[in-house]
Amino acid sequence: MIIVIKSGVPKNEIEEFKSKLEGKGLIVHEDFGQEYCILGLIGDTSSIDPKQIAAYNIVEKVIKVQEPFKKANRLFHPEDSLIDVNGIKIGGGNFTVIAGPCSVESEEQIVGIAEDVKRAGAGLLRGGAFKPRTSPYSFQGLRQEGLDLLKIAREKTGLPIVTEIMSADMIERFVEDVDLIQVGARNMQNFELLKELGKTNKPILLKRGLSATIEELLMSAEYIMAGGNENVILCERGIRTFETYTRNTLDLSAIPAIKRQSHLPIIIDPSHAAGMWWMVEPLSKAAVAAGADGLIIEVHNDPANALCDGQQSIKPKKFESLMSSLKEIEKFKWRFDISELGL
Ligand code: PEP
Ligand code: MN
């Protein structure tokens, strides 16, 4: 349930009203926009009569929230969330591209690619250090050494770094070393990990699970937010369908669906969706037009010899030309109109 407070109500009256609601055992989430104040109720609201609440003279209206996700819900926070990743702002009308190799392989490789993608306009550098591979015999990442190399690349280019966390015991190290912590598709429903990440204040890039619904993705975001960490960025990276031509099926409709239901930024990973480098350009363009807040793209200087995901990695030159054409598309990208919420 959300309670929309009339505009111009003094803060102390809102606080008093809020305490009354908290007295009923509810968590009250406050959201002050430019023209509104919303109190979002979390907990068992069955004892609350919406008509009684609407009778308070400070209340404009009461709206029941049907969805199970609350803090992630657009109704709790109508305006787009803006997540600050070490100075780079993601969401809220910005368009941000994260680029880099699937895996960190050497200092020369990661620093070289970081310089290339920065020149082309990327805002952040990606690179896996701990890799979740299907086969235990495949390259598992450089692990701690990979993290150290990412830090060197950050120092040389100034690009904030994004890398995947695999388990809760790594949180302390990641909070210290990484700017944006990625939760991979395979861990989207590792609820213990999500709960622990909820106790930090680090921005989290939460990727949609291989077979997860949009609601399940939003519920995973809710796990992180429920703990107090509201710095969540969602990522659609393709889902399992009956189609086998592509590695996954990019669910483009997830962009408008999430934009309508949530204030969290949504970025698209065309590389893992398609699994083929030549599809990255058309899918990226479509994602921008459909309203994505950004992209995460695999870029490799030598895809044929990459230790992971070379077949879906584009070369720096291709990345550069893609970046300039995306700027054109951005001008007419679709944006959600919050007046559609009917607040
Ligand atoms: C990745 O980004 O390198 C990755 C493993 O992605 P996903 O979790 O989406 O498969
Ligand atoms: Mn990859």
UniProtKB/TrEMBL annotation:
Residues 1-67 form the DAHP synthase ferredoxin-like domain. Pfam families: DAHP_snth_FXD, DAHP_synth_1. GO terms for biological process: aromatic amino acid family biosynthetic process. The keyword Manganese does not apply. Keywords: Transferase. GO terms for molecular function: aldehyde-lyase activity; transferase activity. This is 3-deoxy-D-arabinoheptulosonate-7-phosphate synthase. It comes from Clostridium acidisoli DSM 12555. The lineage of its organism: Bacteria, Bacillati, Bacillota, Clostridia, Eubacteriales.
